[in-house]
Amino acid sequence: MDAATAAAQVRINELMTEIDRHDYLYYVLDAPVIGDTEYDKLFRELKDLEKKHPELASPHSPTQKVGGHVVSALNPITHAIRMLSLDNAFNDDEFSRFNAVIVDECAVDDVEYTAEPKYDGLASSIIYVDGILTLGGTRGDGQTGDDITHNVRTIKNLPLRLTGDYPKLLEVRGEIFMPREVFNKINEDQAAVGGKLYANPRNAASGAARQLDSKVAAKRSLAFCAYSLARAEGKQFKTQMEAMLALQSWGIPITKGLKIVKGLQGAKQYWSEVLASRDSLPYEIDGVVFKVNKISQQEEMGFNSTTPRFAIAWKFPAQEESTSLIDVDSQVGRTGAITPVGRLKPVKVGGVTVSNATLHNWLIVESLNLHVGDTVLVRRAGDVIPQIMTADEKARDPAAAKIVRPACCPSCGSPVVMEESTLRCSADFECPAQRQEKIINSVSRKLMNIDGLGESSVAALCDLGILKDLSDVYRLTVDDILKVPGTGAVSSQKLINAIEASKATTLPRLIWSLGIREVGESTSKLLAAKFSTLDALMNATREELLEIEGVGDKTADFVIKALQPGAAIREMALAMIELGVTPEVIQAKGDALAGRTYVITGTLPTMNRDAAVAALEALGAKVSGSVSKKTTAVIAGSDAGGKLAKAGLLGVPVMDEEALKALVGM
Ligand code: IVH
């Protein structure tokens, strides 16, 4: 080896160790010490060196996680220790009964349990020999599974090499799962081409983990968390917790939120807390797993045929249920998109009764080959609208009527056009449904913010022919409003006052409320920041619009078309100004908080949420709706729920209103 090659070898080793360390800090301890840019730099340096000296590239290098290994079929593997399953508890009583048996048999009052979220993915067993990831397998029937080592090696948060005082042979068990974001993206991509949807992240994870080409698996960004230690040669532990912390010290990510709880009370409280945080987690969980912490007591309890007697999964309400499809209706949105909506036999999903569910688009309806009366799988997860994921073709009545896409707009009868995967009404302001939906959207809280002008009032006023577009709202009189069924003099006057109050608005809100295609909240802010006045925006050229980072060809075209002389939206905007709508002149943005992201949750004692958001954004901060590792801090008021709990789980700092005021200098 010449001197240059030797130097490269030294540097490659250094970089591998350094990157492994940062991966550990980031993925396992949730405590990164460097930013993305610095990390990327190290990573690129290593990749470049490996490219220059392929003979020095290690198979355990962190650069190897992009996959590349292809197998012709999955080989079977035999588990040295059988992979068990868990008994379930579906309510308080069932959990209490489980606890009572342990109290009785172990003769202790307050049983000490480890408590942790139950990840919704697939069980996997992973073996490290001499600290090197050697084998990864699925559970299969518990005795024999599939060898998925090539795909397990692409899992970003799972080390290819262990660190610390690891045993010579380690077999760890845990869940391979797919983050929500990846799952949603895969299904969005599928929906865009009318392809088959994955019913849930579990199925998607399972599909990805069984890919023959590990490059495909790598793209699916699978993640892993350990929940048990099967074998650790030469190591002995007194408690489950000790074993888990040992795994963590060797570099293995363990379940987030793992904690010791005491007795029935402690367990119930933990279960409720985790349930409250469920929707804000970046992955899906379907319950909490409790395990007796002391290994001696675990041994006392022993096993049933396929499950331990010392552990239980206390499940959350299911997020998927089957029900029958009554029919599929068409809903015309404010931009003319005609979306299929499934009318369902009411069914409880995740604790809420669902009778309508979206079907994404008509391509999906056609690819599911839906028929009236079909048995469909409905899913309601997080804040996502209930969706119909699959239909049971086998259970279909052969005489059932096939559901077909509408040939014309169900509201105005205009011809429909297919734009990518969206079926659209070819009319615009002439379509009553579009008109009504545009107004409902424009007067909502985040836009013109007209309190008391709800969906049903807008619908009634549209039906009466009083409202045709947003500007008509500013022409409403008490007499007009009194024509809405169920409205009295007091509420009419209140609504007039609210309309009056809404005239003092901001330019981004006004722009957003015009309902220009592709111009939502963030684009409105960009346009307002660039042009400062509505007048200037109306006179903007296509080139000027394209100078804005974040405004592309499509958006620019829609803006130009909407605001050109004679266009309906331009006329409406001018009429609104004429009727007294006055956007305040916006202040230039500071950048003291640039690059930071905050999440506001709960009710702040004195500030309203909009004011808090405005104060942060004015200093260049981003305000997000969900907590992640990248969140700078969570600002919590009273009644803060899941987001606060999640901050706790992820170790994100929490601030109160006082601290916020100090931060923004109020
Ligand atoms: S313990 C000996 N802990 O749930 C029992 N399982 O329904 C081993 N799972 O097959 C399982 N998160 O795939 C355990 N924190 C957790 C879990 C968990 C998810 C899965 C696992 C298991 C299934 C049983």
From TrEMBL:
The EC number(s) this enzyme carries: 6.5.1.2
GO process terms (BP): DNA repair; DNA replication
Main EC class the enzyme belongs to: ligase
Keywords: DNA damage, DNA repair, DNA replication, Ligase, Magnesium, Manganese, Metal-binding, NAD, Zinc
SUPFAM superfamilies found in the cross-reference section: BRCT domain (SSF52113), DNA ligase/mRNA capping enzyme, catalytic domain (SSF56091), Nucleic acid-binding proteins (SSF50249), RuvA domain 2-like (SSF47781)
Catalytic reaction equation(s): NAD(+) + (deoxyribonucleotide)n-3'-hydroxyl + 5'-phospho-(deoxyribonucleotide)m = (deoxyribonucleotide)n+m + AMP + beta-nicotinamide D-nucleotide
List of residues binding NAD(+): D36, T37, E38, Y39, D40, S85, L86, E116, R139, E175, K291, K315
Cofactor: Mg(2+); Mn(2+)
Annotated positions binding Zn(2+): C409, C412, C431
Task of the protein: DNA ligase that catalyzes the formation of phosphodiester linkages between 5'-phosphoryl and 3'-hydroxyl groups in double-stranded DNA using NAD as a coenzyme and as the energy source for the reaction. It is essential for DNA replication and repair of damaged DNA.
Record's protein name: DNA ligase
Species annotation: Pseudomonas putida (Arthrobacter siderocapsulatus)
Lineage, broadest ranks: Bacteria, Pseudomonadati, Pseudomonadota, Gammaproteobacteria, Pseudomonadales
